[in-house]
Inverse folding.
């Protein structure tokens, strides 16, 4: 029988012991997460197989069962940037998908979307 978590008095542990315990816990968490992901992957593969499809084929389907159209290819291979953070130029947004946090926060503080537009 193993000890209950609530019965362990960590206040008696040294700093080094607590750090070692945290590292052991991190490793155990990583192993359990990895194991769970392997289980979930097997379940997904079994479900796809049960309808005669591959996982990749299923992921290409839109929720209504229709195939998604991919994004228009960017023939230059460059990242499309339509908006840029004026305080941190590395933060950009293509204008597609959910607005990034930095942009959403700026808009909530009264900024206009046009303030961040990149001129072509």
């Amino acid at each position: 029988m193993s000890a209950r978590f609530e019965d362990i008095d960590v206040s008696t542990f040294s700093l080094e012991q607590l750090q070692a315990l945290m590292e052991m816990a991190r490793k155990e968490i990583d192993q359990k997460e990895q194991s769970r992901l392997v289980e979930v992957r097997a379940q997904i593969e079994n479900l796809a197989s049960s309808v005669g499809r591959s996982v990749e084929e299923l992921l290409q389907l839109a929720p209504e069962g229709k195939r998604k159209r991919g994004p228009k290819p960017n023939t230059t291979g460059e990242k499309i940037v339509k908006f840029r953070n004026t305080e941190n130029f590395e933060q950009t947004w293509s204008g597609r998908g959910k607005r990034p946090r930095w942009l959403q926060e700026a808009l909530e503080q009264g900024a206009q979307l046009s303030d961040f537009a990149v001129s072509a």
User: Anything to note?
Assistant: The mean pLDDT is 85.
